[in-house]
Amino acid sequence: MKLSQAFRMAFKSVLANKLRTALSMLGMLIGVATVIALVSMSEGSSRQVQAQVESLGAANMLQVTITGRGLTTSLSKDEAMEYGDIDNVEGVSPIVNGNAYAKYGTTSESYTVEGITPEYADVRNVSFVEGRYIVDMDLTNYNKVAVIGANVASDLFDTEDPVGKTLLLNGNRYKVVGLLETKGDSLNGSADDKILIPLTTAERLLSSKGVKSIYLKITDTDKSEATQALITAKLAAKFPNSTNAYRVIDQQESMETLGSITQTMTSMMAGIAAISLVVGGIGIMNIMLVSVTERTREIGIRKSLGAKRRDILTQFLIEAVAISGLGGAIGIAIGYVASHIIGVVMDTETAVSFAMVVEAFAFSAGVGVIFGIFPANKAARLRPVDALRHD
Amino acid sequence: MSHNDNEVLIEIEKLVKTYRMGQETVQVLHDVDLTVNKGDFLAIVGPSGSGKSTMMNIIGCLDIPTSGSYKLDGVEVKGLSDNKLAAIRNDKIGFIFQGFQLLPKLTAIENVELPLVYRGLSNKERRKRAAEALRKVGLEERMFHKPSELSGGQQQRVAIARALAGEPPMLLADEPTGALDTRTGQEVLALMEQLHQQGHTIVLITHDMEVAARAERVVRMKDGVLTEDHAERRERREAFAGIQDGI
Ligand SMILES: Nc1ncnc2c1ncn2[C@@H]1O[C@H](COP(=O)(O)OP(=O)(O)OP(=O)(O)O)[C@@H](O)[C@H]1O
Ligand SMILES: [Mg+2]
C-alpha cells in the first residue's frame, strides 16, 4: 500500500469519529498548552535576567575588593590604574564608595555614592541620557559635580530636570551635570539608585583615603581565569602574607549561578509539562486500544483482502500520530494565547520561541508514535480468521 | 470456454486441521484430498459443524493447515509467512462472505477498491476497475451509497464486485445466500453462474443442497471427511456443457 493512501485512510477514520478524536486529543492538547504557557513564562523571566546581566556587561567583568590589613587598607588611584597593564585587561575603573545624605529642596535621602574615574562609563557599561559625564578635569580640580541615577532623579527632583540643579551631599553643594540611563535591577545594586561623583572629591566627602574597589573589563572571557591569576599575583605582592586582604570576584560566576537558577526553573516546568504529555499519550493509547478492539472485524476484512501487517500497523500508527499531532497543534495555539494572557494579567514577560513550538509539536507527534505502537502492533498481529469471526 | 479444463488451480493432499482446546485437541479435517481445476464451479456441501468454514479458511489462506499439503496455483502455501499469505489473498482469491463483511463507513465503490488499495494501484486505476466491477454486478447506480443504504442483495453484490475487482483466479464464497431471502439468494446465485460462464473459478460453500445443485461439481463434507460422487459429477458436467453449447 502507498503511504499517501495510508495517510488518507487514517485521516478519514480520525475525522469519522470526531467526538472520540476530540476527547482523546484533549490530554495532549492540555499538556502541550501547559508546556507552552509554563516554559514561555520561565523563558520570559530568564530573558529578563539575561538582559539585565548583559546590560551590566557582567560577562566580561572582574571585581577586586580590598578590605586591607594593618596600615595599608586600600590602593591609590595610580596603583589601581596599573592593573590596566595586565594582559587581557581592557579597562580599569577604580571606585571609592560609601553612603551620603542627598538633599534637594525639602527631600532628603541616603544614597550610595561612588567616586569614579571617566573609565567607569566604559567598564561598567553605563550611558547617560542627559548632560555630561565625569571627566579627568573634574578629578584634578576636585570639582563638586555629580551624575545621578534615574531613581535618584525621580526621588529628589520629581518631574524637574535635574541637570544644572544643585543638591547637597552631606551638606556640601554638588552640581548635577548628568543623568544616567535607566538600567533596572541588577546584581550589584542598580546604578539607578547611585550618585556618581569624581573619585578625588569622593575621597574627601567620604573621608576615605584610597580605592577599595576596582572594576576590570577583560577582552577575552575565555582567558578570564588566567587574568584573575595575574591580578591575584599583583595583589599578593601589594599585600604580602595576607591573602584575605583582597578578593577577586568573577561577575561571570554570579551570572552563571543566576542563570542556573532560571535554568532549573525552566527544566522543572518542562518536567511537569513532560509528565502531562505522557499522561496525554496514555490517554491516546487507551483510546487506540479500544478502537482496535472495536474495529477487529474491520481489521479482519482488510487482512482478508490482502492487507499486510505493515499496512495495518501504519494505518493505526498514523491515526495515533494524527490525533496527538493535531492535539499538539491546537495545544500550541492555546498555549500561545494563554502565555500572552498570563503576561498581561501577571505583568511578567513571556516569550514563545519558535524552537519551543517546533519541539512541542515534535514531542507530541513522538508521543503519538510511542503510545500508538502498542495498539497498532496489536491490530497488525490479529489473525484474520479470528478477526473476521469477531463481533 | 475460455479456460483450460486441465489446468490445476487447487491441489490439496492429506490435509489435516486440528484445534487445540485447552488440553484436548479436536481434529476438524481428516486427510482431505481435493483438486480443483481452473474454470470449475465447485460446491462444498455439508451439515453445520462439519468443517466447511474451516476448509474455506484454509483454501482462502486465512488459516494454515496443521499438516498435509495445499498448492494454490502451483505454490505450496504451507509454511509461508503472514506477508506472503496476505499477498496471495490479494492476488489470487476473491472472498464472498455470508455476512457480506463490507466496511460500513465506506461507500460501495470504496469498499470495492479495497483489494486494489493493498495492491498499491493508483487512485485513478482503482476507480476505473472498481466502477467496472460494480457495473458487472449491476450496481453502477449505487456506487456512492454506504452499505447501510443498500438492501441485503445489493450488499452481497457489492461484496461480489469487491471479490471481482482484483481479477483473482478464484472466487471463494462461504454461504453467500445465507443472509438473503430465497428470491435475492436466487439472484446472487444466477450472478455466480454467469461469472462461472465467463470463466471464473468458483468454490461455493453451503449447507443447502439446493444451492449446491447450482454448481457444476459437488463435494460433500461430513465430520471433517470430504467425499465426491463421481457419477454425479460426470452427469453435471455434461449438463453444463449442454447449456453452454446451446443445445
Ligand atoms: N477456532 C476454533 N477452535 C476450536 N474449534 C473450532 C474452531 N473453529 C471451528 N471449530 C470446530 O470445528 C468444527 C467445524 O467448524 P466449522 O466452522 O468449519 O463448521 P461449518 O461446517 O462451517 O459449520 P456451519 O455450517 O455451522 O458454518 C466445529 O465442531 C467447531 O466447533
Ligand atoms: Mg461455517
TrEMBL record, chain A:
Q: What is its main location?
A: membrane
What does the UniProt entry say about where the protein is found? Cell membrane
Topology of this chain in the membrane: Multi-pass membrane protein
The UniProt entry, under InterPro entries, shows: ABC3_permease_C, MacB_PCD, Macrolide_Exporter_MacB
Q: Is rRNA processing given among the entry's keywords?
A: no
Keyword field contains Membrane: yes
Sequence intervals crossing the membrane: 268-292, 312-338, 350-374
**Residue stretches making up the ABC3 transporter permease C-terminal domain:** 272-382
**Protein name (database record):** ABC transporter permease
Task: Provide this UniProt record's keywords sorted from A to Z.
Answer: Cell membrane, Membrane, Transmembrane, Transmembrane helix
Stretches assigned to the MacB-like periplasmic core domain: 21-233
Organismal lineage: Bacteria, Bacillati, Bacillota, Bacilli, Bacillales
Q: Which family does it belong to?
A: Belongs to the ABC-4 integral membrane protein family.
| Pfam family of the protein (one) | MacB_PCD
